[in-house]
């Protein structure tokens, strides 16, 4: 690949000792005109948020907790492509920088050996308007949880226990932002958005697995067969394809 030159867009990095949540902070900043490419990072979050209104906990300095602001003209049905872009950039940065290969778990986790390494949370401001702000937050476990009862209990892992040496969070962030910028043009055209989803599907270890999916209204048990064009999970249950937009997936066997 040609050298893309210095990064231009995702360069406005604000690194805080502590915030309530980098997503909350950046959504507020988006409301007062922060430009695309603004990145909020915190060593610690007092009210970190995960999907489905869960909390995201991480001891101070032990994770890469970052949120990235995109301003895009997208239909709400296409927004999954933005979080897919960040999930892919994170996966590739982890492979390139640390030499650890991880898969995606639907919708937006990075996992290895069925243990969670990172989670992504995309939130919007101004949906339905001309200029939608999409904030994609990512939490990557860097030095916590170490192998042991806590990691087992949480079913989680961290980069340092996978690679066996200290990981520089700033270098990892810079590598990820380089890859975000390199892929950013894909959001501007339908083909690019489709290929983001195809790429994510190809690294999603959920696909092809027997799964149990808990939605707000039901539990499905079946085989995950792919992602639809909106990034929703297609699960085959007794020969019938069901589409899941929001839910918790457990990989069975
Ligand atoms: C999940 O797995 O449920 C998603 C977790 C997302 C956590 C990150 S940490 C940085 C950003 N700020 C937040 O409050 N949440 C995201």
Task: Tell me what you see in this structure.
- The chain has 253 residues and is α+β, with helices and mostly antiparallel strands.
- It has two domains: 12-203, Bira Bifunctional Protein, Domain 2 (BirA Bifunctional Protein, domain 2), CATH 3.30.930; 210-251, SH3 type barrels, CATH 2.30.30.100.
- Helices cover 27% and strands 33% of the residues.
- It is built from six helices and twelve strands.
- The strands form two sheets. It has a seven-stranded mixed β-sheet, with helices on both faces. The protein has a five-stranded antiparallel β-sheet with strand order 11-10-9-8-12.
- Strand 5 (109-112) and strand 6 (115-125) form a beta hairpin.
- Helix 2 crosses helix 5 and helix 2 crosses helix 6 (190-203).
- It is globular.
- The mean pLDDT is 96.
- The structure holds biotin.
- The site of biotin (BTN) has 20 residues, from helix 1, strand 3, strand 6 and strand 7.
- Residues 21-23, 45, 48-51, 54, 56, 65-67, 109, 119-121, 137-139 line the site of biotin.
- The count of domains is 2
The CATH class of the largest domain turns out to be Alpha Beta
Alpha-beta content class: alpha+beta
Which value, in Å, is the CA radius of gyration?
Answer: 18 Å
Task: Say which molecules are bound, naming each kind only once.
Answer: biotin
Order of helices and strands: EHEEHEEEEHHHHEEEEE
CATH architecture of the largest domain: 2-Layer Sandwich
What fraction of the residues are assigned to beta strands by DSSP? 25-35%
Quickly count the helices.
6
- What is the third-level CATH name, the topology of the largest domain? BirA Bifunctional Protein, domain 2
Biggest pleated sheet: 7 strands, mixed
Q: What's the count of strands?
A: 12
What would the average pLDDT be, to the nearest integer?
96
Helix percent band:
25-40%
Would you identify the CATH H-level superfamily of the largest domain? Answer: Bira Bifunctional Protein, Domain 2
Major sheet: arrangement of strands: 1-2-3-7-6-5-4
